[in-house]
Amino acid sequence: MNIAVMTDSTAYLTPEQREAFDIHMIPLQVVFDDATYEEEVDITASEFYEKVKQQKTLPKTSQPVVGKVIEKLEELSQSYDAVISVHLSSGISGTYQSMVAANDMVEGIEVYAYDSELSCMAQGYYALEAARMVKQGASVEEILKRMDEMKETMIAYFIVDDLSNLQRGGRLNGAQAIIGSLLQVKPVLHFEDKKIVPFEKIRTKKKAISRIKALLAEQAADGAKMKACLLHGNRPEEAEILRQELAAEFPNVEVEISYFGPVIATHLGEGAIGLLWYKV
């Protein structure tokens, strides 16, 4: 069976990664007042952050256009019998459900939609693992089983630098945002039941980062091989400093850097920092 691997743009895999592992991508969209952009296609992360600074209102986000999803699957059906398609959490987007529905809309290819229950490089790791296994001749069932095993230890925490994005996006009311700003509260967020919810409220970003590092330390204490990824909202230098600290502190953890692209950054805002990990 010829198996294709696909993910959506919120995995934020680099073009080089997608090309090297033959991973197909379907883009989500950000909608500004003047135009709609497909992330990773029409607008880069850096372009997005600059454009947000020029706007008075936050953009909106939208899942992939159904017509383009069908078009992509029809294209894949010419060369593949099945596609494993990894998507951001169904609790924050309808993309996964759209892909499930697409299985009945296209003939000649079987669609195996996979709900990462997270986003960003977490779903990227699932797609990369699936692509590696395809190259090794694994079956769909073997790949899905392996991704489920990864999910048992896959976890992510996020810190937002500015509460106003959460407030303007309807995730925090005005009074809470004002109080939080005055007290310099930096909420640590995580995914619970597929949705982003507060994990803890901590007074400063430095303490919030220390708290997440402590959570990683608990998981890394047994010395098992792990992968971790630092995610940043237009803060590459800050992410690199943290990466070096983590690499020195946790020799059994391979630490990489990725980013929050347009769709996810719309909700988390510039300056957000995240850390995700799983046991290899």
Automatic annotation (TrEMBL):
Keyword Cytoplasm appears in the UniProt entry: no
A molecular function (GO) term: lipid binding
Family matches, as InterPro entries: DegV (IPR003797), DegV_C (IPR043168), DegV_domain_contain (IPR050270)
Superkingdom of source: Bacteria
A Pfam short name: DegV
Keywords on record: Lipid-binding
PROSITE patterns in UniProt: DEGV
NCBIfam families xref list: DegV
Descriptive protein name: DegV domain-containing protein
Species for this entry: Terribacillus saccharophilus
